[in-house]
Amino acid sequence: MRIEVLYVPGCPNYEPAVERIRKVLASESVEVGIRAVSVNTEAEAKALLFPGSPTVRINLENPFGPKV
Predict the structure, then answer these.
(1) Are 6 and 57 in contact (CB under 8 A)?
(2) pLDDT on residue 63
(3) Which candidate, 43, 54, 48, places its Cα nearest to that of 21?
């Protein structure tokens, strides 16, 4: 399993999102790293199909939005 959290620097919801993911993983005894992806430019956002900050992707798909 691959988990990524895409965010813009300064996003107030980034840290709480990562903490919630860690808690859920721990509650299920799942050990998976979380990759943080900082999105710094509009070009990066377009290339990553970044809908907003933060965005959680599991196995490259956003479970809360359209498929990537």
Answers:
(1) yes
(2) 85
(3) 54
